[in-house]
Design goal:
With 236 residues, the protein is of the alpha+beta class. 44% of the residues lie in helices and 16% in strands. The chain has helices at 3-10, 18-35, 39-42, 48-74, 80-84, 98-117, 119-122, 146-154, 210-218, and strands at residues 86-89, 95-97, 126-128, 131-134, 141-144, 168-171, 178-184, 223-226, 230-233. A hairpin with a 5-residue loop joins strand 1 and strand 2. The chain is globular.
Protein backbone atom coordinates (compact mmCIF):
# COMPACT_ATOMS: atom_id res chain seq x y z
CA UNK A 1 0.00 0.00 0.00
CA UNK A 2 1.53 3.34 -1.05
CA UNK A 3 2.03 6.21 1.36
CA UNK A 4 -0.52 8.45 -0.37
CA UNK A 5 -3.26 5.86 0.07
CA UNK A 6 -2.23 5.33 3.71
CA UNK A 7 -2.48 9.06 4.35
CA UNK A 8 -5.93 9.27 2.75
CA UNK A 9 -7.19 6.39 4.89
CA UNK A 10 -6.01 8.06 8.07
CA UNK A 11 -6.83 11.67 7.16
CA UNK A 12 -9.59 11.59 4.47
CA UNK A 13 -10.62 15.17 5.24
CA UNK A 14 -7.17 16.36 4.20
CA UNK A 15 -7.05 14.21 1.07
CA UNK A 16 -9.83 15.09 -1.40
CA UNK A 17 -10.90 12.04 -3.34
CA UNK A 18 -9.17 9.78 -0.86
CA UNK A 19 -12.35 7.96 0.15
CA UNK A 20 -12.25 5.66 -2.88
CA UNK A 21 -8.60 4.86 -2.23
CA UNK A 22 -9.38 4.20 1.41
CA UNK A 23 -12.18 1.77 0.53
CA UNK A 24 -9.96 -0.11 -1.91
CA UNK A 25 -7.11 -0.32 0.60
CA UNK A 26 -9.43 -1.51 3.36
CA UNK A 27 -10.80 -4.17 1.01
CA UNK A 28 -7.27 -5.43 0.39
CA UNK A 29 -6.72 -5.63 4.14
CA UNK A 30 -9.94 -7.61 4.53
CA UNK A 31 -8.93 -10.01 1.76
CA UNK A 32 -5.50 -10.62 3.29
CA UNK A 33 -7.01 -11.16 6.73
CA UNK A 34 -9.64 -13.51 5.31
CA UNK A 35 -6.95 -15.61 3.64
CA UNK A 36 -5.63 -16.41 7.14
CA UNK A 37 -8.95 -17.68 8.46
CA UNK A 38 -7.39 -20.24 10.77
CA UNK A 39 -5.81 -17.67 13.08
CA UNK A 40 -4.70 -20.00 15.85
CA UNK A 41 -2.82 -22.25 13.42
CA UNK A 42 -1.54 -19.23 11.51
CA UNK A 43 0.16 -17.78 14.57
CA UNK A 44 2.75 -20.55 14.42
CA UNK A 45 4.33 -18.97 11.36
CA UNK A 46 4.84 -15.50 9.94
CA UNK A 47 4.70 -15.46 6.15
CA UNK A 48 6.27 -12.64 4.18
CA UNK A 49 2.78 -11.42 3.27
CA UNK A 50 1.80 -11.34 6.96
CA UNK A 51 5.08 -9.65 7.90
CA UNK A 52 4.45 -6.97 5.29
CA UNK A 53 1.01 -6.31 6.72
CA UNK A 54 2.39 -6.10 10.27
CA UNK A 55 5.02 -3.68 8.93
CA UNK A 56 2.27 -1.53 7.41
CA UNK A 57 0.15 -1.42 10.57
CA UNK A 58 3.09 -0.48 12.79
CA UNK A 59 4.44 2.10 10.34
CA UNK A 60 1.00 3.68 9.95
CA UNK A 61 0.73 4.07 13.71
CA UNK A 62 4.21 5.59 13.91
CA UNK A 63 3.44 8.04 11.11
CA UNK A 64 0.11 9.00 12.68
CA UNK A 65 1.69 9.71 16.08
CA UNK A 66 4.44 11.75 14.47
CA UNK A 67 2.13 13.80 12.25
CA UNK A 68 -0.58 14.49 14.82
CA UNK A 69 1.76 15.52 17.64
CA UNK A 70 3.91 17.66 15.33
CA UNK A 71 0.78 19.46 14.11
CA UNK A 72 -0.58 19.88 17.62
CA UNK A 73 2.62 21.16 19.20
CA UNK A 74 4.41 22.94 16.36
CA UNK A 75 1.98 23.35 13.47
CA UNK A 76 4.41 21.25 11.45
CA UNK A 77 7.76 19.53 11.86
CA UNK A 78 9.97 20.88 14.69
CA UNK A 79 13.24 22.51 13.77
CA UNK A 80 16.64 21.25 14.86
CA UNK A 81 16.82 24.13 17.35
CA UNK A 82 13.45 23.25 18.85
CA UNK A 83 14.48 19.61 19.18
CA UNK A 84 17.66 20.58 21.01
CA UNK A 85 15.94 22.85 23.54
CA UNK A 86 16.57 21.76 27.14
CA UNK A 87 13.29 21.60 29.06
CA UNK A 88 14.56 20.44 32.44
CA UNK A 89 17.17 18.31 34.15
CA UNK A 90 16.62 14.87 35.60
CA UNK A 91 17.48 13.69 39.12
CA UNK A 92 21.10 13.15 38.05
CA UNK A 93 21.38 16.63 36.57
CA UNK A 94 21.34 15.43 32.98
CA UNK A 95 19.46 17.60 30.47
CA UNK A 96 16.05 16.51 29.22
CA UNK A 97 15.60 17.91 25.71
CA UNK A 98 12.44 18.55 23.78
CA UNK A 99 13.47 15.75 21.43
CA UNK A 100 13.50 13.30 24.33
CA UNK A 101 10.13 14.46 25.68
CA UNK A 102 8.55 14.47 22.24
CA UNK A 103 9.89 11.01 21.50
CA UNK A 104 8.23 9.64 24.64
CA UNK A 105 4.88 11.25 23.79
CA UNK A 106 4.94 9.96 20.21
CA UNK A 107 6.01 6.54 21.41
CA UNK A 108 3.06 6.36 23.81
CA UNK A 109 0.60 7.42 21.10
CA UNK A 110 1.98 4.95 18.57
CA UNK A 111 1.91 2.04 21.02
CA UNK A 112 -1.75 2.76 21.85
CA UNK A 113 -2.51 2.71 18.13
CA UNK A 114 -0.67 -0.60 17.65
CA UNK A 115 -2.55 -2.13 20.57
CA UNK A 116 -5.78 -1.21 18.79
CA UNK A 117 -4.86 -2.03 15.18
CA UNK A 118 -2.80 -5.23 15.42
CA UNK A 119 -5.22 -7.67 17.15
CA UNK A 120 -7.39 -8.33 14.06
CA UNK A 121 -4.30 -9.71 12.36
CA UNK A 122 -2.38 -11.24 15.29
CA UNK A 123 -4.83 -11.73 18.15
CA UNK A 124 -2.83 -13.46 20.87
CA UNK A 125 0.27 -13.42 18.70
CA UNK A 126 1.99 -10.21 19.74
CA UNK A 127 3.10 -8.39 22.89
CA UNK A 128 4.09 -4.82 23.67
CA UNK A 129 7.04 -4.04 25.94
CA UNK A 130 7.68 -7.68 26.68
CA UNK A 131 10.87 -8.03 28.71
CA UNK A 132 13.33 -10.93 28.39
CA UNK A 133 16.23 -12.06 30.57
CA UNK A 134 19.12 -14.30 29.63
CA UNK A 135 19.26 -17.53 31.62
CA UNK A 136 23.01 -18.07 32.20
CA UNK A 137 22.49 -21.79 32.76
CA UNK A 138 20.60 -22.55 29.54
CA UNK A 139 21.87 -19.69 27.38
CA UNK A 140 18.28 -18.93 26.40
CA UNK A 141 16.36 -15.68 26.70
CA UNK A 142 13.30 -16.17 28.86
CA UNK A 143 10.25 -13.90 29.08
CA UNK A 144 9.50 -12.11 32.34
CA UNK A 145 5.90 -11.55 33.36
CA UNK A 146 4.65 -8.10 34.40
CA UNK A 147 4.45 -9.41 37.97
CA UNK A 148 8.08 -10.57 37.88
CA UNK A 149 9.25 -7.21 36.56
CA UNK A 150 7.30 -5.32 39.22
CA UNK A 151 8.69 -7.57 41.96
CA UNK A 152 12.25 -6.98 40.74
CA UNK A 153 11.65 -3.24 40.64
CA UNK A 154 10.46 -3.29 44.24
CA UNK A 155 13.78 -4.84 45.26
CA UNK A 156 15.79 -2.14 43.50
CA UNK A 157 15.80 -3.46 39.93
CA UNK A 158 19.35 -4.80 40.06
CA UNK A 159 18.31 -8.08 38.42
CA UNK A 160 16.75 -6.19 35.51
CA UNK A 161 20.15 -4.95 34.35
CA UNK A 162 20.96 -6.78 31.13
CA UNK A 163 17.35 -7.54 30.27
CA UNK A 164 15.94 -6.46 26.90
CA UNK A 165 12.51 -5.03 26.10
CA UNK A 166 11.58 -4.61 22.41
CA UNK A 167 8.63 -2.33 21.74
CA UNK A 168 6.70 -4.91 19.71
CA UNK A 169 7.25 -8.67 19.77
CA UNK A 170 5.52 -10.90 17.22
CA UNK A 171 5.28 -14.45 18.56
CA UNK A 172 3.47 -17.75 18.10
CA UNK A 173 1.08 -17.20 20.99
CA UNK A 174 3.88 -18.25 23.31
CA UNK A 175 5.99 -15.19 24.18
CA UNK A 176 9.07 -17.42 24.40
CA UNK A 177 8.72 -18.28 20.69
CA UNK A 178 9.63 -15.01 18.98
CA UNK A 179 9.04 -14.55 15.25
CA UNK A 180 9.97 -10.86 14.86
CA UNK A 181 10.68 -7.74 16.90
CA UNK A 182 10.24 -4.02 16.26
CA UNK A 183 11.49 -0.87 17.99
CA UNK A 184 9.87 2.51 17.34
CA UNK A 185 12.17 5.44 16.65
CA UNK A 186 11.24 9.13 16.55
CA UNK A 187 14.37 11.09 15.62
CA UNK A 188 14.13 14.84 16.09
CA UNK A 189 14.35 16.42 13.64
CA UNK A 190 12.79 13.71 11.52
CA UNK A 191 15.55 13.93 8.93
CA UNK A 192 18.02 12.42 11.43
CA UNK A 193 18.58 8.72 10.68
CA UNK A 194 16.94 6.34 13.18
CA UNK A 195 19.72 4.36 14.86
CA UNK A 196 19.84 1.53 17.34
CA UNK A 197 20.76 2.68 20.84
CA UNK A 198 24.27 1.65 21.89
CA UNK A 199 24.74 0.34 25.43
CA UNK A 200 27.11 2.47 27.49
CA UNK A 201 29.53 2.15 30.39
CA UNK A 202 28.44 -0.16 33.16
CA UNK A 203 26.04 -2.13 30.98
CA UNK A 204 26.66 -5.88 30.51
CA UNK A 205 26.53 -5.39 26.72
CA UNK A 206 28.64 -2.23 26.64
CA UNK A 207 29.58 -1.31 23.08
CA UNK A 208 26.84 -3.44 21.51
CA UNK A 209 23.60 -1.96 20.20
CA UNK A 210 19.96 -2.91 20.57
CA UNK A 211 19.69 -4.40 17.09
CA UNK A 212 22.60 -6.81 17.41
CA UNK A 213 21.46 -7.82 20.90
CA UNK A 214 17.93 -8.53 19.66
CA UNK A 215 19.36 -10.55 16.80
CA UNK A 216 21.50 -12.65 19.12
CA UNK A 217 18.53 -13.20 21.43
CA UNK A 218 15.82 -13.96 18.87
CA UNK A 219 17.50 -14.51 15.51
CA UNK A 220 15.93 -13.02 12.42
CA UNK A 221 16.41 -9.42 11.39
CA UNK A 222 14.98 -6.96 13.97
CA UNK A 223 13.26 -3.85 12.65
CA UNK A 224 13.37 -0.22 13.66
CA UNK A 225 10.46 1.88 12.47
CA UNK A 226 10.62 5.64 11.94
CA UNK A 227 8.13 8.09 10.35
CA UNK A 228 10.17 9.37 7.42
CA UNK A 229 12.32 6.30 7.03
CA UNK A 230 9.87 3.42 7.09
CA UNK A 231 10.68 -0.07 8.36
CA UNK A 232 14.45 -0.61 8.42
CA UNK A 233 16.20 -3.89 9.09
CA UNK A 234 19.87 -4.48 9.75
CA UNK A 235 22.39 -1.89 10.89
CA UNK A 236 22.58 1.55 9.25
Amino acid sequence: MDSETNFCIRFPAQCPGGEAQALAARQRLVEVSASGASLAAGLRNLTEEQRALVDTIILDCVKDADFLLNEKLFGGSPTREQCAEVLERDANGKPVTRAMRLGLEKHEAAMACIQEKLPPLRQGGFSLNQRYRLNPHTGKWEPLSRQQVEALLRTGGKDLVGTIEPDVVIHTGNVAEVLDVYDLKFPCPGTNPPTWRTYGEGHPYRGADQGSTYQQAFGGNPARVAPRWGVLRGNP
